[in-house]
Design brief:
141 residues, single chain, alpha+beta, 32% strand, six-stranded antiparallel β-sheet, 16% helix, elongated, 2 helices
Length: 141
C-alpha cells in the first residue's frame, strides 16, 4: 500500500489542498487508475487517458471534518475551481464536495465516509500519456 505525498514536486493540486488544511494528514492510497478515453466527451481523438488518484487523509480528528470541508471549499473557490457539487450536510456522514478547475478541467473531491474518514481525490480530463500529442498523430483531428 502506497503512502506519502502524491505530488512529485510538492506544487500540485494534492499538496495545495493539503497545505490549506489546519492539520497535516498522512496519506494512504485509496485508488490509482489510468483508463483509455475510448469515447472522449470533448470530441478529441482517441489514444488519450484519464487518470485518477485518491487518498485517505489519516491522522486528522474526525470532529473537525466540517472545518476541513469548509476550508477546502474556500480554498478551491479562491483558486479557480468551479464547484460542481456541494453535499455538505448537518451530519458529517456521506458529505462531499466535487470541483473542477476552470482552466485545465482537472477535478478534485473531498468525501467523508460513513465512519467519518476523509478522502481526497483527483481525476484528469483526457490527456496524452506523455503530456503532448504523439509525433505520429495526424494534425487537424
Amino acid at each position: 500500500m502506497a503512502t506519502g505525498n502524491p505530488d512529485t514536486e510538492g506544487r500540485g493540486p494534492f499538496s495545495n489542498a493539503i497545505a490549506a488544511l489546519s492539520g497535516q494528514p498522512s496519506l494512504r492510497q485509496l485508488s490509482d487508475y489510468s483508463d483509455e478515453c475510448t469515447n472522449p466527451t470533448d470530441g478529441g481523438p482517441e489514444g488519450r487517458y484519464e487518470v485518477g488518484r485518491g487518498y485517505w487523509l489519516d491522522d486528522l480528528p474526525n470532529e473537525k471534518n466540517r472545518e476541513y470541508l469548509d476550508t477546502l471549499y474556500t480554498h478551491w473557490e479562491a483558486n479557480n475551481y468551479r464547484i460542481r457539487s456541494d453535499n455538505r450536510r448537518p451530519s458529517d456522514e456521506g458529505t462531499s464536495i466535487y470541483v473542477e478547475h476552470n482552466e485545465d478541467a482537472f477535478r478534485m473531491s473531498i468525501r467523508t465516509s460513513d465512519e467519518g474518514d476523509l478522502s481526497l481525490g483527483a481525476d484528469s480530463p483526457c490527456i496524452w500519456p506523455e503530456g503532448t500529442l504523439p509525433d505520429d498523430t495526424e494534425p487537424g483531428f
